[in-house]
Amino acid sequence: MKKRQNYISWDEYFMGIALLSAERSKDPNTQVGACVVNSDNKIVSVGYNGMPLGVSDDDFPWARQGSYLETKYPYVCHAELNAILNNPGMSLKDCSIYVPLFPCNECSKAIIQSGIKKVYYLSDKYEQEDSTIASKRMMDAAGVSYKQLKTNLEELKISYRVEDV
Q1: Is it the case that residue 165 has pLDDT exceeding 80?
Q2: Which listed residue (80, 127, 129, 154) is catalytic?
Q3: Which residue from 4, 70, 106, 113 could staple onto 66, CB 3.0 to 4.6 Å apart?
Q4: What is the structure's pLDDT at 164?
Q5: pLDDT for 163 beyond 80
Q6: What is the Cα–Cα distance from 10 to 64, expressed in whole angstroms?
Q7: Please, which residues bridge with residue 47 across strands?
Q8: CA atoms within 13 A on the CB side of 146
Q9: Annotated catalytic, 155?
């Protein structure tokens, strides 16, 4: 018998972990996850966008519009930052990060500072925004590469039914 042929690639696997992590987000509008991987294809850390530890996601706002302090923006930690901060102390030097959405300028600063050298993303829907332009400028200057992940997958099925295994 030969090995199974229709398995997913490493990139699809790690992006799948990022997408699964995004399902933990309580944000009603945007769910983003992140998966940090070392050069040995070992997952170093994961994260998703949400409130900082000790900040109740029931007591703070999730609005996208309104006065600044009544929106989510001053409070929510993005997935990339959470993945960097969730790392249990391993070096992130030369790691890669997988994210569904291209990182904002604030997350790009953390990515660069942490030593991550590659960013894989699915969507660059904010590419015309100043924050994304700033991200790319900083990454280019710091030698951090970024690449849109191309895949033929449209979805991955995860089942909790034992008979499907």
Answers
A1: no
A2: 80
A3: 70
A4: 60
A5: no
A6: 34
A7: 34
A8: 24
A9: no
Is the Cα dihedral 112, 114, 119, 125 positive or negative?
negative
Which letter does DSSP use for residue 64 in this model? S
Residues in the chain: 165
Residue 96 per-residue DSSP state: E
**CA nearest to 153, candidates 5, 36, 12:** 12
What is the pLDDT at residue 124? 96
Contact 7, 1 (CB under 8 A): no
Q: Extract the tokens encoding 46.
A: 């994961």
Q: Return left, alpha or beta for 143; rule: phi > 0 is left, psi -120 to 50 is alpha, else beta.
A: left
* Dist CA 4 CA 7 (whole Å): 7
Burial status of residue 116 (CB atoms within 10 A of its CB: 0-12, 13-18, 19 or more): buried
pLDDT, tens digit, 9 for 90 and up, residues 21-45: 999 999 999 999 999 999 999 999 9
Q: What is the pTM of this model?
A: 0.93
Cα gap 57→72, rounded to integer Å: 10
